[in-house]
Amino acid sequence: MRGTVRYGVIGGGDMGREHIRNLALLDGATVAAVADPFEPSRSAALRIAGPNAVACPDYRELLADASIDAVVIATPNHTHAVVLEDALATDKAILVEKPLCTTVEDCRRMEAAARRGGNFVWVGMEYRYMPPVSRLVETVHAGAIGRLRMLHVREHRWPFLPKVGDWNRFARNTGGTLVEKCCHFFDLMRLITRDEPVRVYASGAQDVNHLDERYCGAVPDLIDNAFVIVDFAGGGRALLDLCMFGEASPAEQEIVATGDAGRAACTIPASELTIGRRASGRSETTVIEVAPALLSAGSHHGSTWFEHEAFLAALRAGTPPAVSVRDGLVAVAMGVAAERSITEGRPVDMAEIGLKEPSPQKDLREFSPFQKRDGGDTEPLPG
């Protein structure tokens, strides 16, 4: 694509407006249309997009506009499958917010539809693009901590915010907390380990949040705390530590990767990366600077701008999306497995969720930091 890329944003809520603010900061991009059936959200999005943007009550009007090059889908989770299916019937490039869909079955349908149509589809996993997280991933992949053996992801944060129609108070609409909120972290686990999940063990409950709320007489059913352990094909493991009533925590998010030679950790919002070496017992901390304009454009530590920068660069270069439909599917499947593990009180193999086909990352000898020997031991990959 040459010249300015014209975007249409479907969904005028908090996340849709964050996309609009960040696209306004990106050279070569303009928001030409916004769509939302809820007038207050539509008007709020239009005010940010500017007077030259068109407002559409029905997203299908936006999709029918031939002048729109790319669409961002930021609608409620349970609507993603319907909206994405309609978008896949066009020739527009697509960025669909996480989770890809709320069920594995819908994710599979979207994967098949995207394959048939040949669309450029990018799943919005902006946590990959938080600057300190990106630096941690680079550090691990460069071998700075040796062979990666353990990965710990911790998020202690505030409860779910209110949404239009209170759609996010029920798992039937969100996919469940470990799909809605945590598919980001399951995606990061795969990205950092460069490996595929084989088994999930989880313990969690709804202990604090939303218990005194009623919607048409129904009590919200969202898990608000959990530990989730994921075993990977190459022998490594990862832990998610989630608390949705952790406002008192000084660090909202922390990711710690530990290898046989050292440890790398990053924290949000401090934006720090700490690398320690076992040999010396010493560590060094670097503050990863993020431009104030990017911090003020959203609530994801500048990552939405970096994600859009990468999306637009790939679109112009004709290269595949960095976050594929398949990536979105596996992240949802990991969340579904974790929710099932809690409900049924047992480990859940990913094969039960339907991930039986060969790994898209293919040869673990090439991609994984863990390499199995015939005897079951592990050895590092060459280089």
Task: Explain the overall architecture.
33% of the residues lie in helices and 24% in strands. A hairpin with a 2-residue loop joins strand 11 (253-259) and strand 12 (262-268). The chain is built from 13 helices and 17 strands. With 383 residues, the chain is of the alpha/beta class. It starts with a strand and ends with a strand. The chain has helices spanning 14-24, 39-49, 59-64, 80-88, 104-117, 131-141, 171-174, 177-180, 183-193, 292-296, 303-317, 325-344, 364-367, and strands at residues 5-10, 29-35, 54-56, 70-73, 93-97, 121-124, 148-156, 197-205, 225-232, 237-243, 253-259, 262-268, 272-277, 283-287, 348-349, 371-372, 378-379. It has a nine-stranded mixed β-sheet. A six-stranded parallel β-sheet has the order 3-2-1-4-5-6, sandwiched between helices. A two-stranded antiparallel sheet has the order 16-17. It has two domains: 5-126, NAD(P)-binding Rossmann-like Domain (Rossmann fold); 129-299 and 324-372, 2-Layer Sandwich (Dihydrodipicolinate Reductase, domain 2), CATH 3.30.360. Helix 1 runs parallel beside helix 2 (39-49) and helix 9 (183-193) crosses helix 12.
